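Morning F.,

Quick status update on the modeling queue. The single chain you submitted on Monday has been processed. Sequence for confirmation:
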Amino acid sequence: MRYVYFALLLCATPSPAADFPQPASTRADEPLAKKLSYTKAAEYLDGVGVNWTRERDCITCHTNMPYLTARPLLKGDAGWKEVRKYLETDVTNWSAGGKPRGDAYIVATAFALAYNDAQQTNTLHSTTKAALDRMWTVQRATGDWKWLKCDWPPLEHDDYYGAVLAALAVGYAPGDYAKTEAAKTGVAKLKTYLKKTPAPDLHHTALLLWASTKLDGLLTADEQAKAIKSLKAKQRKGGGWSLPSLGEYKRRDADKTPNDPNADSDGYGTGFVTFVLLQAGEKPNDPAITSAIKWLKTNQRASGRWYTRSLNNDKAHYITNAGTAFCVLALSAAGEKVNE
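Structure tokens below.
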């Protein structure tokens, strides 16, 4: 009998957390991959996304938020399900009286969960609804949110980004959440803010273009067409885009070296713009898209990431994490079989 009892104890013991090796530091001189590998992309995304969540105990726009949008498209699910569970637990803690880290964390969490719901089940999870509902309680009278001002463009440096991310969260939320009584007033205020406030740069114009494909009333058809034209005009000869060409961003290096708007194409610029253009209705056989996909297929690095130089300094290049996620999203949206 005691052997049966011992066996039952073993079965009841939780399995240890899966091990996801942390990738080496991002370097501009990392060699290109010999061939495109979605397995390596998955390993890289797991390494940065899961470990960030475990070690930093927070959600960020440059790492585990985009991780939860892109990683489920690739083989394997232990990593992204762990990050999803972390966010669900965080929201549950808010509902039990816990205090969120800040307004931006609420919006980022709502977006990540809503996108994942739309992608995986097309059903609004109760925890996602709780995060979205909480989002309205910290919305400002002006219709936007108090965003992180870390001087980390283009994601964590101005309120406009947070407002458009909230629009994406609502737009992706399944079940016509945007039309519910809980959301109506907040959505109306948000739309007013976005109508009155011009996008400060082309990156945020692209972000708004994306949101306008999910939430009605953000851009007219003519405004969408103008945004698409502006983005295509920035495509480089090799088929990609560079992040510095999407806005005027000041570096925080000691010598204040300016970002070069004519810099070589990078992972974030190419992945992000290609994905947005596809969401906005551009076809995979459009010449701009086919050139971009060719660039993506030939510019993955050996580690599985797509490199992007930080707009701030050369210490960490965290924007590479978000860029790699967008590269996977873009390839999948173009019809590439990323799950093989």
